[in-house]
């Protein structure tokens, strides 16, 4: 019989050999005495055999597993400094949802709270926050930024805003700036090309504008600025070969850009300017004249409080020691209307010129032409 030289083999040999000589009772006693020793030695042997393997696995893991990457945060530039004099449109954010089911009222504030807490935890500048979150009729959520922050600045953290909003409303899918529109006037559009049968009218011009000018969206049909009869007669007799056309396009910035460089249709560049409706009761903020608008005004200025040669917003008292803010009345200076020269301010109900302008607008009920 082969005898193992390790301790386990020796004890097993002794146990086997003794069982041949002893009876059943002695056999059971020896079995109970030797069993714990055999189990303990087997466990020790297994642990010793596993130690080199565990060390090898640990070494390989250290070599192959890269260090844990730090969490990535949506960066908002610290240089996004506050700005003064922003309009409501410049501050408005729109949270788009994938349906038109409105939120409960109590969830409006919860969304604003979730977004602002997320911006704080992501170390966004303190002025990058939102307020006045509320639902609109289209199922979207509108919110305002801080009074000195544009929506564009807040959108640097768009991922933060969307993720936070979705913790309250799972249907939020996107966030974007407020959609604005600009009315433009295109000059010298030829009648012969865009009027009459077989020309598709201004729809053709609209399609050409969209095809040849990058980024332009024209949501509605344009219109001739001149009377339709004038356009028709001018085309037939050739006396008035062209007129101006008004279109609405997306974005005030794009409108200003187009007004500077022009717009192209069928390979031809047209001169453009931003368009403002003028009514008989329109009042110019520069000269305070009725039936007049600023973009057609010269360099002259008239104050609506004292008729002085300065803008109304720059009016100030000349009395030493009087310190009201500019553009405010204080009672020390005499009022004088720049239109009728009466002893009242320009928009006083006592002004004859203002009453005439109001009556003319009420009677006509029409939108005048710019000029």
Structure description:
The protein is α+β, with helices and mostly antiparallel strands and 371 residues long. The protein folds into 4 domains: 1-49; 88-177, Alpha-Beta Plaits, CATH 3.30.70; 181-274, 2-Layer Sandwich (Alpha-Beta Plaits), CATH 3.30.70; 278-371, no CATH class. The protein is 37% helix and 14% strand. It is built from 11 helices and 10 strands. It has helices spanning 7-21, 24-64, 88-91, 105-121, 151-154, 158-166, 191-194, 201-212, 228-237, 252-261, 352-364; strands at 92-97, 130-135, 141-145, 172-177, 181-190, 223-224, 242-250, 263-265, 268-270, 272-274. The chain has a 4-stranded antiparallel sheet. Helix 4 packs across helix 6. The model is unreliable at 1-22, 61-74 and 366-371 (pLDDT under 50).
Count of runs of 4 or more consecutive helical residues: 11
Order of secondary-structure elements: HHHEHEEHHEEHHEHEHEEEH
Shape: elongated
Strand element count = 10
The CATH class of the largest domain is: Alpha Beta
Q: Radius of gyration, rounded?
A: 42 Å
Lateral strand order in the biggest sheet: 2-3-1-4
Q: Helix/strand/pairing class, anyone?
A: alpha+beta
Mean pLDDT: 75
Strand content: 5-15%
> What is the CATH fold-level name of the largest domain?
Alpha-Beta Plaits
* CATH architectural type of the largest domain: 2-Layer Sandwich
Number of domains: 4
